Amino acid sequence: MKRRTRQQLEKVAVITESPDDCRRTWDAVEYIMEPLEERYDVTRISVLDTDPKNGKAATKTEIKNARDDVIGAIAGFKYVVIVGNTPLQVITGKAGISKLRGRPIKQDGHIFLPMNNPGIIRHDDKQETLLNADLQFFDDMVKFGGIPEAKDLHFRIVMSDDDVEEMIADLRGAVSYDIETTQLYPWQTQKLNDRTGEWELNPEPKIVSLGFGTARNQWCVPVNHPQSPWTQDEVEEMMDRITEKRDDFFLIAHNGKFDLLWTWVHLGVKWELDFDTMLAHFLLDENMRHGLKYLAQVYCGAPDWEIDLTEKQGMNVPLKKHCKYLAHDLYYTRKLRYVFGKMLKDDWEVKRVFDKIMMPCANLFVEIEYDGVFIDMDQFGEAEEVLREQYEAALAELEEWEPDHYVKKNGDVYYFKDARRKNDPTRFNWGSTDQLRWLLFDHLGIEPLDKTDAGGYSTSESVIKRLDHPCTEALLRFRAAKQQLSFFIDGWKPFLHQQSRGFYLHPSFKLHGTVTGRLSCEHPNLQQVPRDPRIRSLISAEKGWTLIQCDLSQAELRIAAELAREPAMIHAFTHGIDVHWLTAIREIERGGGLKDLVIGTACRIKGKNDMRYADAIQVLLEVGHEVATEVEKEWKEYRKKAKAVNFGYLYGMWWKKFKIYARDNYGVNVTDEEAEASRTTFFDNYAALPAWHKRQKKYARRHGFVKSLSGRKRRLPEAKHADDTPERRAAERQAINSPVQSFANEVNLMAAIQLRKEYGRNVVKICGTVHDAVLFRVRNDMVEEVYTRMLEIMQWPDLMDEFDIEMVVPIEADGDLGPWGKSISLEKARKVADIHKLSVGQLLDKYPVSAIQEQWKEAA
DNA sequence: ATTGTGGGCGCG
DNA sequence: AAAGCGCGCCCACAAT
């Protein structure tokens, strides 16, 4: 019986790296060999005769030598599974399993299917889904008798007026939408020609095609493809007609923010997206990747339909092939919506985050990116000039210590006068960490102070500051100027977009950018603009408008206090005491230090000659850091220090790191004992924190995830591990940090959504969010109203009630107006406006914020 | 010529 | 025994 069954099984070969791989070792057998052996007559072939020593990868020679044997061994097998990178290299001669896995390779009469080595599951159990998808695909392939063709689906290329009518009539129910474009940034930019010194326009970005996926068809409209019959006007007219029908269908897209932004910029119609499959999947599993093809493979068993980038960009590809690709995008986007829709239904809390925060944000950020941020080009030019001077000056000073040669890590000697390097061919490169490392620690013989993660000697700012050598000061100036130039001057130029009212940047926000739910930002990254006013104030507003920044004050600390139910913190927040200040004073009190400063400041505040230490501490706590700082400037530094301490300890920092922090940021050398005591004191002062930490760890360990107040999940599979590994520790720290970081960001997003809801784009243009702050421009006549209202909104956005959130700790918000980094408070603006007998709006129309600041100083 | 990685550093 | 979290960008250098 058994024998007969076996003969009917298809013969397949499995190539592994070594004899032990996937056979005797751990759990891999269960993942690959057993499922295959159930269905096939499996022959296993290994590339190497024995396991590589010490778990090392096979060498190139070994791979080369193994080739003939392996090729011989698979003779007669049509279907071959490749397990891991080494066998892949043997067969294809190329590495890159992560890119090639899941994609069948036809070669010499065989069909190979590369997949990951199941050992990866030990490090990342998410990989199990992928492995199963690959095995499933292998089954499909064998059943089909070859590589399953990318399906023709039912794609229709819209070429005639009749097609248009039919398409528009078909737009009902759930409709997916996708476009193909020539590039990613939808605005035309310019670049400086190095030879002529002239500004030249970059190629015009274009929509190549767009399409709609319905229940029966995938409609593909060629827009700028050479074979397109349509003019720009005709396409726009088509889109207008669809806009009129927009309420008749449910719009789905994968990363729809991209498609809708382009559609708005290039075709003039602005649509609201109903369901974003990428964002849905992000909420369902933030640890996985969210690419359409990957998800279609994993959740729908889709074949690979990827084509070359140039073909996607459409110009040199037959229209039919291009549209077939688009059709697959449309088909699987629509399919994934049902899969993820169902998964969301099973988790109402996550669904609520999706419906009320994620999708509204997806639509909001289309507008945010469309409006962009205004750049003050006069300041931009000035900043560039100043930074170039600083850069040149620092470099000139460094010349004194430039060596004529450099010994590379491998021992090669490198003479600069002979070398041909990209920028300055004959010069020592101070920007190269390798060269600098050699110069400082080998050539000059300075004692290295720290190592990098990879084990080399570090040349970080922290180290250089502590080195006793005359070059260090200029070196730090060199690095700072170089970085600011390359990040924010040269780095921004390729994104500057000229419009009638001036130049704009359009940073792109990734709503799925971080595992906690914070957004990330790129092209360029608005969220890493230095606080240095020279750079930050480049971001401003066009004439007649004013930039406003509103931020949640100490949001994370407030949320932590709430979650931990920490009495001392809650008391501080409900009584308007600054927690960073509280920490600073308690820390000083613990050591009984700074007697002169503490008593001196308190006496001057109270107008007394002497006071007991304990009483003085009490006075300082009561008056707050602002009053204390007015009397004695030093207090500002102590508060700043405490701020870092608060966050560090709150999220699990250990005293050793505190030592490093104190040294690098405050030049204070704390002893081990002092550092340990500081941590102990922190948890004595905030005694409910350890219990909260414990609760979070326990919860994560039991469930494998934690939740924020909104119900958003952070999945932490490592927290479930039985052994106390560094990975589990890391997961436990994230279990503490994540709900706090998540929720602070969510409050901020709720506020941004509401701001847009209450004011139209003719009054407010939102520029972006920076985790706990919203940046927006307001028409001058509305500045007072919008600013005041936004602070109210931030303190308790309406969505907080919709989520049934209750908090005992009050949320507070703060803000200011004017160029970023050179802004003033509304109070100041009001005072100056009163002097002129003007409204704040009129004042802002009449004077730049810098002048208002000056006038306020004179008046005060 | 492109692609990947480490080092360093900007932000919250 | 060992312990903040979350990002993106630019450069240099090595590898493909």
Task: Summarize the topology.
Layout: H1 2-8, E1 11-16, H2 28-39, E2 41-46, H3 60-73, E3 79-83, H4 85-92, H5 97-100, E4 105-107, E5 110-115, H6 120-123, H7 127-144, E6 155-157, H8 161-170, E7 173-181, E8 190-192, E9 199-201, E10 207-213, E11 218-222, H9 232-244, E12 249-253, H10 256-267, E13 275-276, H11 277-284, H12 292-300, H13 309-312, H14 319-345, H15 348-371, E14 373-375, H16 377-398, E15 405-407, E16 413-415, H17 433-443, H18 461-466, H19 472-489, E17 497-499, E18 502-505, E19 508-510, E20 520-522, H20 533-536, E21 539-540, E22 545-552, H21 555-564, H22 567-574, H23 579-591, H24 595-606, H25 613-631, H26 634-650, H27 655-666, H28 672-685, H29 689-703, E23 705-707, E24 713-715, H30 726-758, E25 764-769, E26 773-779, H31 783-795, H32 798-802, E27 813-817, H33 826-836, H34 840-846, H35 849-859
Parallel strand pairs: 1-2, 1-3, 3-5, 6-11, 7-12, 12-13
Antiparallel strand pairs: 4-5, 7-10, 8-9, 10-11, 14-18, 14-21, 15-16, 17-18, 19-20, 22-26, 22-27, 23-24, 25-26
Helix pairs in contact: 2-7, 3-4, 10-15, 11-14, 11-15, 12-14, 15-30, 16-19, 21-30, 23-25, 23-26, 23-28, 24-25, 25-26, 26-27, 27-28, 29-30, 30-31, 33-34, 33-35
The protein binds a DNA duplex (12 and 16 nucleotides) through helix 17, helix 19, strand 20, helix 26 and helix 30.
